[in-house]
Design a protein that fits this description.
Elements lengths: L2 E2 L3 E3 L11 H13 L3 H4 L9 H15 L8 E5 H13 L5 E5 L4 H10 L2 E5 L1 E2 L2 E2 L1 H11 L3 E4 L13 H14 L2 E5 L13 H4 L4 E6 L10 E5 L2 H14 L5 H13 L1 H24 L12 E5 L6 H10 L2 E2 L1 E2 L13 E5 L6 H15 L5 H4 L2
Parallel strand pairs: 2-13, 4-5, 4-8, 8-9, 9-10
Antiparallel strand pairs: 1-2, 3-11, 6-7, 10-11, 12-15, 14-15
Helix pairs in contact: 1-10, 3-10, 4-5, 4-9, 6-7, 11-13
């Protein structure tokens, strides 16, 4: 979608344009249909997903995240949100504390509310969660679970270096914390750091989906978990969705097994590079340390702008972005920043039309006091 009603250019949705890969999707669907066994795909499946599809996901995780596991440690879910739901339902109970990054993916906030979990934010720096802050929060609140996004974190774009990951893994082992590691953007990383599931496999549930790398409509997500947790995760699936969305998973497996999935992912990386280059040509040094490998910008605002006032002023000029408040967890200090998504609009010309007024607004001298009028 290029615009919202009223001609608003929507730079608030962290998705990628799908039209470059329409032929790939059509070919995969036709290949599945051409086998003549469509009815067999319509029956109930095992709660963890059929073995062939789990093997395909295991291969995908190794190719995109570097995480090598046997297929019997893979469970299929309905999208990444389903993976988060399964992981947290299997490891927490209503009333528990869930530790999260200081600013975090909004989907975990809505899920925690549904599950009756209390979010406690953990302080971050440019390399992600601070190990000392994690230990202090876990001990101080009696927490037993952490949700985090170590690679190209949404929204800050931060990627934990290896040393930071090792320190986080050490804290989790020492305190018995279960880590729910969200790697949905891992396929975009320019350099690959070891996953937390590699560094601390006995305490880490690794989750992902193909919503960013392939197509969100496939609704294919997955959980890679320690064996002692597999039965509990499968029980969550049986109790909630009974069986994963099979047809979408079969199309996903077709894309992976044919090699087309990796080609699509490479095209996505190319699209991100093009959109980031365009953003940098317009915004220049205003971008600070936002990582150019991912689908969005994390834009720290000048002191003359409050994040909410900036978002409102930009919307009045026909462009929608997301202020940092949407990502704030608990009573964490909220950065004076906005997230700007670059890849959901189909045409680069539309993105440029959205970024030009944003650049102009950043340079305007509006004071904080004026924003309060």
């Amino acid at each position: 979608m290029e615009t919202l009603p009223g001609g608003i250019i929507d730079l608030s949705v962290n998705a990628t344009a799908l039209w470059p890969d329409a032929d790939s999707l059509r070919d995969a669907v036709q290949a599945v249909a051409g086998r003549g066994d469509l009815l067999s795909l319509m029956g109930y499946q095992p709660p963890q997903g059929p073995q062939r599809l789990r093997a395909a996901i295991a291969a995908w995780a190794e190719a995109t995240s570097g995480l090598s596991v046997p297929e019997d440690q893979v469970l299929l879910t309905t999208g990444g949100q389903g993976a988060m739901h399964a992981a947290l339902s299997a490891t927490t109970r209503p009333g528990d504390v869930l530790l999260v990054e200081q600013v975090t993916y909004p989907g975990i906030k809505t899920l925690a509310l549904q599950l009756g979990l209390r979010l406690v934010p953990v302080a971050m720096d440019g390399d992600g969660i601070l190990p000392d802050a994690l230990e202090q929060a876990a001990r101080g609140h009696g927490a037993h679970a952490l949700y985090c996004m170590p690679t190209l974190q949404n929204p800050t774009t931060a990627t934990m270096p290896r040393a930071r990951r090792e320190a986080i893994a050490a804290v989790a082992r020492r305190l018995g914390l279960v880590i729910v590691e969200d790697d949905v953007y891992g396929f975009l990383a320019r350099t690959r750091e070891p996953t937390l599931a590699e560094l601390a496999p006995e305490v880490t549930i690794h989750i992902g989906s193909v919503s960013k790398s392939l197509f969100p409509g496939l609704r294919t997500g997955y959980v890679i978990a320690p064996r002692p947790l597999l039965d509990r995760l499968a029980a969550v699936t049986r109790a909630t969705i009974l069986t994963p969305a099979h047809l979408g998973a079969v199309v996903t497996a077709e894309l992976i097994e044919s090699g087309e999935a990796l080609r699509i992912a490479e095209r996505r990386r190319g699209l991100v590079a093009e959109r980031q280059a365009l953003a940098r040509s317009i915004l220049g040094n205003r971008l600070g340390g936002s990582d150019p490998a991912v689908t969005h910008l994390w834009l720290t605002l000048p002191e003359s702008w409050r994040r909410d006032a900036f978002a409102r002023a930009l919307l009045e000029q026909g462009v929608k972005v997301t202020p940092a408040d949407a990502f704030a967890a608990g009573k964490a200090e909220v950065p004076n920043a906005v997230r700007v998504c670059l890849c959901s609009v189909d045409r680069a010309e539309t993105l440029e039309q959205g970024l030009r007024p944003l650049a102009t607004l950043l340079d305007s001298p509006l004071s904080v006091e004026a924003a309060l009028v």
